[in-house]
């Protein structure tokens, strides 16, 4: 895929790939990385649930046209059982790596608590509990056939964490990492509408559902720095990412 928009800050909408059923499918290309190189377009994607695809529809044909070969599903197995996985998983190098170990219901969060600190604390749990699965996901992205996509349910939190860690390893600036995380805000309205459609008998208690302001990830990265010296220190010391894996990522995705 050969799309070369200008600097991502000026082309936020262009990195979104439009589907009818998915609302948060994005290309991670175009960010300036290590050694002055740039993350290649059309090689690494983040998304909301690929279980929304149905064979025979235009969405599915549009997805297949991207040439994706590695698919990582970050959801719980019970989420996949309830909502479905990507169609025809045998077409891909596919892995289900559930990085979150303590489920919680965002719709039921107390509306009076600090929402961004609350979410950052949940990210901290994922970063600790899911270190093994995070390592496996990053290693598969580094070594599996490409292009690659990783996703959760909304493409917001679990996906947002993996995206931030990958971009960190690729040498992308924190400013761009935070900006990429916040692009999910463009999908918030659709994610909220989908929740209401799927839960007609429930009341949404938390007014920040579907939000992903940069402050959340800023808190997460600060927490990792406080505990491990830096996000890179977390990746090497806690997750176990080796220099060889980082070099493979940079060789594969930077141009």
Structure explained in plain terms:
The chain is an alpha/beta fold and 255 residues long. It has a single domain (16-102, 111-253), classed as Protein-Tyrosine Phosphatase, Chain A (Alpha-Beta Complex). Helices cover 43% and strands 7% of the residues. The protein has ten helices and five strands; from the N terminus they run ββαβαβααβαααααα. The protein has a five-stranded mixed β-sheet, with helices on one face. α2 (77-83) links the parallel β3 (70-73) and β4. The longest helix has 15 residues, at 115-129. The chain is globular. The model is unreliable at 1-13 (pLDDT under 50).
Output the strand order for the largest sheet. 1-2-5-3-4
CATH architect. name: Alpha-Beta Complex
Residue-averaged pLDDT, rounded?
94
- The strand count comes to 5
Task: Set down the secondary structure blueprint.
Blueprint lengths: L25 E2 L16 E4 L10 H7 L5 E4 L3 H7 L9 E4 L18 H15 L1 H13 L4 E4 L6 H12 L4 H9 L5 H11 L15 H15 L2 H9 L3 H11 L2
Parallel strand pairs: 2-5, 3-4, 3-5
Antiparallel strand pairs: 1-2
Helix pairs in contact: 3-8, 4-10, 5-6, 6-8, 8-9
């Amino acid at each position: 895929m050969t799309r070369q928009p200008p600097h991502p800050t000026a082309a936020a909408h262009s990195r979104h790939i439009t589907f009818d059923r998915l609302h948060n499918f994005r290309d991670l290309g175009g960010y300036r990385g290590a050694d002055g190189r740039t993350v290649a377009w059309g090689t690494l994607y983040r998304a909301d649930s690929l279980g929304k695809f149905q064979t025979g529809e235009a969405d599915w044909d549009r997805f297949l046209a991207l040439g994706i070969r590695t698919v990582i599903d970050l959801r719980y197995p019970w989420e996949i059982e309830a909502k479905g996985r990507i169609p025809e998983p045998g077409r891909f190098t596919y892995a289900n790596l559930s990085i979150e170990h303590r489920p919680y219901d965002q719709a039921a969060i107390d509306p009076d608590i600090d929402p961004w600190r609350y979410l950052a604390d949940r990210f901290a749990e994922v970063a600790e509990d899911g270190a093994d699965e995070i390592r496996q996901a990053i290693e598969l992205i580094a070594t599996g056939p490409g292009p690659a996509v990783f996703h959760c349910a909304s493409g917001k939190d679990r996906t947002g964490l993996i995206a931030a860690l990958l971009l960190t390893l690729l040498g992308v600036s924190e400013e761009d990492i935070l900006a990429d995380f916040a692009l999910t805000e463009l999908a918030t309205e659709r994610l909220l509408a989908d929740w209401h459609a799927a839960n007609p008998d429930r009341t949404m208690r938390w007014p920040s559902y579907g939000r992903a302001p940069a402050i959340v990830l800023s808190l997460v990265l600060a927490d990792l720095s406080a505990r491990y010296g830096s996000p890179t220190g977390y990746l090497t010391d806690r997750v176990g990412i080796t220099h060889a894996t980082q070099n493979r990522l940079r060789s594969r995705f930077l141009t």
